[in-house]
């Protein structure tokens, strides 16, 4: 479950208020309304399509690896019950690097920021 502690301003989430649903970047007011139960926020799963839209291409050598010169993504399987694909991620940035497992676009946004890489995610 997504909590307000998981989010940063600018993260992309599925936003629902009443019958209205949209994909949008989170603002401070959204986090406050989420905490009060006025709106609902859901994380957006990271997919191969999102990786490719953002310039991380699949390796042509036949392996399940997407990447570029600074970031690499490999599908990671936790178990058959896990319905959302996880990705092992390696990011080489300055001043920090990141090596871990993520599932959602907001987690990728956080890892890129941590590594000092400015990249506006395209959905």
Quick summary:
The chain is of the alpha+beta class. The chain is 20% helix and 31% strand. The longest helix is centred in the C-terminal third of the chain and has 10 residues, at 105-114.
Give the low-pLDDT segments: none
How many individual β-strands? 8
Oligomer: single chain
Shape assignment: globular
**Sheet with the most strands: spatial strand order:** 4-5-6-7-8
Terminal CA distance reads 21 Å
- The proportion of residues in beta strands is 25-35%
Classify the helix fraction into a percent range.
10-25%
Report on this structure:
The chain has helices spanning 28-35, 48-53, 105-114, and strands at residues 12-17, 20-25, 40-42, 57-58, 66-67, 71-76, 86-92, 97-102. It is an alpha+beta fold and 123 residues long. The chain has two domains: 4-42, no CATH class; 48-114, no CATH class. It has a five-stranded antiparallel β-sheet. A three-stranded antiparallel β-sheet has the order 2-1-3, with no helix packed on it. The protein is globular and about 45 Å long. The model has no long low-confidence stretch (mean pLDDT 87).
Pick out its properties.
alpha+beta, five-stranded antiparallel beta sheet, 123 residues, three-stranded antiparallel beta sheet
């Amino acid at each position: 479950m997504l909590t307000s502690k998981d989010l940063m301003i600018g993260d992309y989430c599925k936003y629902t208020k009443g019958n209205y649903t949209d994909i949008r970047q989170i603002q401070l007011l959204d986090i406050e309304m989420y905490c009060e139960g006025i709106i609902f926020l859901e994380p957006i799963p990271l997919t191969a399509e999102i990786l490719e839209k953002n310039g991380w291409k699949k390796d042509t050598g036949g392996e399940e690896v997407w990447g570029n010169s600074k970031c690499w993504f490999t599908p990671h399987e936790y178990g058959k019950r896990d319905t959302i694909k996880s990705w092992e991620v390696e990011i080489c940035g300055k001043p920090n690097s990141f090596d871990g497992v993520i599932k959602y676009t907001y987690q990728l946004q956080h890892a890129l920021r941590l590594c000092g890489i400015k990249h506006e995610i395209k959905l």
